[in-house]
Amino acid sequence: MHLSSRQDYVSISFAGQGSGSYNNSKQWRRQSCWRKWKQLSRLQRSLILFILVLLFICGIASYPSVTEHLRGLTGGKQDTASDSILGPFVPFVLPEPAKQGPPPLPELTSQRKLSNKRGPPVLQNRLQKKGNASETVVEDRAADSKKEGEEKGVISWRGAVIDTDEATEGTKNGENKEDSPANQEVKTSKDLESSWLEAVREAFRHAWKGYKEFAWGHDELRPISKSYSEWFGLGLTLIDALDTMWILDLKEEFEEAKSWVATELTFNKNVDVNLFESTIRILGGLLSTYHLTGDTLFLDKAKDIGSRLMPAFNTPSKIPYSDVNIGKGIAHPPRWTSDSTVAEVTSIQLEFRELSRLTQEPQYQAAVAEVMKQVHKLDGKLDGLVPMFINTNNGQFTHQGIYTLGARADSYYEYLLKQWIQGGKKENQLLEDYLQAIEGVKKNLLQKSSPNGLTFVGELSHGQFSPKMDHLVCFLPGTLALGAHNGLPADHMDLAKELMETCYQMYIQMETGLSPEIVHFNMHQGSTRDIDVKLADRHNLLRPETVESLFYLHRLTKDHKYQDWGWEILQNFEKYTKVSSGGYTSINNVRDPEYPSPRDKMESFFLGETLKYFYLLFSNNTNLISLDQYVFNTEAHPLPIWPSTA
Ligand code: DMJ
């Protein structure tokens, strides 16, 4: 009888149907199988044989990896390289915990995705526990990380996270304890310092690569379009970056830039430049490079640009115009007004004073001192706070009633303190104006946010308080700390720490971990988050102010948390602003990590300031541009504090 082919494949039904009685003897089973085999067609038999041979070959081929896998499961070491049976043990390193700072250096270039959960919920918990925001975050962060570590069997040393379970396996397996992976992983603070410094040097090299390739000798790199933009047509980025290269010990880059200055840079050009911007970036950059290198090339260039800027002071009031044609020697205000910006006319003093000291030509210092003298006496201040505009015809404040420490007023306050320091702390009027202004800030502009009580500096408009704070205001913690270091009231340092925390929160509460240009703080009870950002304010221009303040706070308190915060910020710049072909770009939207929307511009201050301050922040060498010997201009160019005999 022929069984249907369908039944051929179901032996149990075949067996059941055959005898009617179940017999499980070996002989019965052998006979039954043989009978079944014989009943198969030739094609069916060859197919089965073919499959069996195939299975056999596969079994042989997969034998090594199966055994390897089994070894892993049964406690053997898990090698990362396929051929590493005899290779070194590579410990398994846990990913960085969400809130901690510094992973090992290679992380910098990786495109690791950061958690989007930044700030508020964690911050809330922390701040609710203690009153002082500035003190609690890092303490609790350390505690959090310790707790997390205990649970997971990890240890954390300033962010280098090591799986202790895995690390001790080496000793379990008989490896020398001295060479155990745990010991290899734990870096000394020197190692960490070098790796962070090297990361900044690497970032600079990357930025320089783009500038050199696509914008050499021009003002700014446009890294996305691989082109450049001109502002004054004076190689602004190159000049702004000179002393940074010197400080970062980038000799090759410095030499090529220097040779451009020697052979290509000329100020005899029919161009309009902004007095303030060219003073702080070009004059300041050349003067500081002269001081650091002793090379008179830079002093000669500084004299040249300094003297070409002087026509700006030829105004009815002696309050300078905003713009000068450095080729024609003609200055003028902007087309739409005869006003200048208060911050601009009061933040050129460090540079012109220094130029006079070096050249022994008093006209530079006299011109800028006259501005300070007039501003000191002017009506229209509020408890030492100045309005944003000043008229070049009558020398009076205009658009009065608006007070801010942000755009158009910021560096007025910074330069009051810094001129006093530069001149050897003798010019009491400057100090008085500074101290009064800080009291004015405390009385009129300082508030706390809700729900977490972040201290912030808002604005005042005709008596109406606005909880708006520019990122530019983040220079203030550093300036306050510098003042306290120079003997000003200790509560300035307390305020510096509180504001530093706020500026850091402006970064980490954003989805990209980068601060927007402007934030608004919530002050109403019941608010769920401290910081709001308007659509138009979501850009980040690679600005330096927060990193600058982190540098001062770390240098003057020695608290390493500020370095950790800076490292976190540097990584976010790496992740969201780095352009692979070279350079870094400002971005439009710090709230969209998927598409931060590049603006295609690398501002000169990214090299002049931001990267320099990162480097100084990560260095533990207090003699590297000592704050007792140098004072930084508002573009991060260090100028010497005058010797007491000067
Ligand atoms: C720089 O040119 C200077 O730091 C200036 O004081 C403010 N603006 C930029 C950086 O943000």
From TrEMBL:
Q: What is this protein called?
A: alpha-1,2-Mannosidase
Q: How does it sit in the membrane?
A: Single-pass type II membrane protein
Cite the InterPro entries for this sequence: 6hp_glycosidase-like_sf, Glyco_hydro_47, Glycosyl_Hydrolase_47, Seven-hairpin_glycosidases
**Molecular function via GO:** calcium ion binding; mannosyl-oligosaccharide 1,2-alpha-mannosidase activity
Which lineage? Eukaryota, Metazoa, Chordata, Craniata, Vertebrata
Q: Which organism is it from?
A: Amphiprion percula (Orange clownfish)
Q: What does this protein do?
A: Involved in glycoprotein quality control targeting of misfolded glycoproteins for degradation. It primarily trims a single alpha-1,2-linked mannose residue from Man(9)GlcNAc(2) to produce Man(8)GlcNAc(2), but at high enzyme concentrations, as found in the ER quality control compartment (ERQC), it further trims the carbohydrates to Man(5-6)GlcNAc(2).
Where found in the cell?
Answer: Endoplasmic reticulum membrane
Endoplasmic reticulum: present as a keyword of the record? yes
